[in-house]
Design goal:
Blueprint (H helix, E strand, L loop, with lengths): L15 H21 L5 H10 L4 H11 L2 H13 L12 H37 L4 E6 L2 E7 H26 L1 E2 L13 H11 L2 E2 L10 H27 L7 E2 L19 H22 L12 H27 L2 E2 L1 H8 L8 H10 L4 H16 L6 H7 L1 H6 L2 H7 L3 H4 L2 H7 L3
């Protein structure tokens, strides 16, 4: 395995310095493979190991003249190697270095992303455990439906994040692929065993069939994987935004002392972090589309993908990492208001228990059509009145009283009947 930088942040992985670091590791791994196969004397290899250096500023200066980044890198590298430099890059083409080095960047980025995703998973699990019995109303179409718990809502987030972790873990194997096959990929000036040995040293798998480049479906899949993760994070952020609306206010982003929400309105406390996450997910979808556009290259290669990837791959990696860090802190500090959840649950006298009343009437012998019409009439009557009280209307209805006792009516308005099987879900997720 190659030696890795200690990374203080995702952005470090996408600097020129780290990119050149991966290029050097590729060149060294190829030289090591050539040494094993007897192409490079061990003494020369030892000299290469000791002397190989690069200087990002010097590389940029050389590139101003040669207008080729890999040649500028090799020129600077050979300045440190002297005569031993003639063994470096033997039989290789630029894409051997570029694409294999890029694979190392993508793998390292996924390692950082997966680490941050694990933190988010644990924070969501903790909050789900804390609120497994915090009752709230479930909504469909944005409209009150039936009781759930906030812990159950978070369980859905947790399950989705676990799927994302599984996807990204699989994705790692798709991008952990190198190529050391020379111009147009035919190994014309290389023993294929060089590729096997070099990739093994780098912790990569040799590409099954490379042209002059590694096929860009792998990179498109990487960007799609990040976009899919971003879509999940956006879903969670959108939920927080809806639940923070003034007329709902069941949860709220933490508002720090001294924080200001509006230059004009002192009362404002806005879900700005959730809104930021929603916007950033749009960027990730755009990068995913760019990745798909990069798949179709002319013949064995062109470089129409290159400029796109220099922006898209690094930016997408940094963006999704930031989103994970942001959402982890947001969920960890989320303000939850159970009393407001209870207030909303019983709006209009508990119309959300209408199905319980319907089923109780059917169970006692009323036809479903009759029961539905009766319950719907009472529910809409409560819904359309200021301070409407569905439960009172049910308790006062003579037809319903012929079928249901006061105790049976009261049982219809017990939210626990809706929640009695949630334990099975919690057990699946270790909540």
């Amino acid at each position: 395995m190659i030696e890795r930088y200690t990374l203080p942040a995702m952005g470090e992985l996408w600097t020129d310095a780290y990119k050149f670091h991966t290029w050097l590791q590729v060149e060294l791994a190829v030289c090591e493979a050539q040494t094993i196969l007897g192409r490079i004397p061990e003494a020369v290899m030892q000299e290469i190991r000791q002397k190989a250096r690069f200087d990002p500023q010097r590389i940029r200066a050389i590139e101003q003249t040669v207008r080729h980044d890999v040649i500028a890198f090799l020129t600077n590298l050979n300045e440190s190697l002297g005569d031993a430099g003639r063994y470096v890059h033997w039989g290789l083409t630029s894409s051997d270095v570029l694409d294999t080095g890029l694979a190392l960047q993508l793998v390292a980025s996924l390692e950082v992303i997966l680490g941050e995703l694990e933190r988010l998973i644990q924070v969501v699990r903790t909050q789900a455990r804390r609120h497994r019995d915090t009752v709230m109303v479930g909504r469909s179409h944005g409209v009150h439906a039936e009781p759930i718990t906030f812990g159950f809502k978070l369980a859905g987030w947790l399950a989705e994040l676990l799927r994302q972790r599984e996807r990204l873990t699989r994705l790692r194997s798709q991008v952990a692929v190198g190529k050391i096959s020379g111009a147009v990929g035919t190994y014309a000036h290389l023993d294929p065993q060089v590729e096997v040995l070099a990739c093994q040293r780098l912790g990569l798998t040799p590409d099954c069939v490379s042209t002059q480049v590694i096929s860009r479906d792998r990179h498109a899949e990487y960007l799609q994987g990040l976009a899919l993760l971003g879509a999940s994070l956006e879903r969670f952020a959108l939920e927080i935004r809806h639940l923070q609306r003034t007329e709902v206010l069941e949860v709220e982003e933490f508002f720090a002392p001294g924080q200001k929400g509006s230059s004009a309105m002192p009362h404002k406390r806005n879900p700005v972090r959730s809104e930021r996450l929603t916007g950033l997910a749009r960027l990730l979808r755009g990068y995913a589309l760019a990745g798909l556009e990069n798949v179709a290259l002319w013949h064995e290669r062109d470089i129409s993908h290159s400029a796109v990837e220099r922006v898209a791959l690094g930016d997408a990696s940094i963006v999704v990492h930031f989103m994970l860090v942001e959402l982890t802190d947001l969920v960890q500090t989320l303000q939850v208001y159970p009393e407001n959840m209870k207030r909303n649950l019983y709006r209009y006298g508990g119309v959300i228990f209408s199905q319980q009343v319907l089923l109780a009437l059917v169970e006692q012998g009323m036809t479903r059509e009759e029961a539905y019409a009766l319950v719907q009439t009472l529910a809409h009557q409560a819904w359309n009145q200021e301070g409407g009280d569905f439960r009172s209307l049910v308790e006062q209805d003579a037809t319903i009283r012929r079928y249901l006792s006061p105790e049976a009516i009261a049982a219809c308005f017990d939210p626990q009947s809706h929640l009695r099987h949630l334990e099975a879900i919690y057990q699946r997720l270790n909540i």
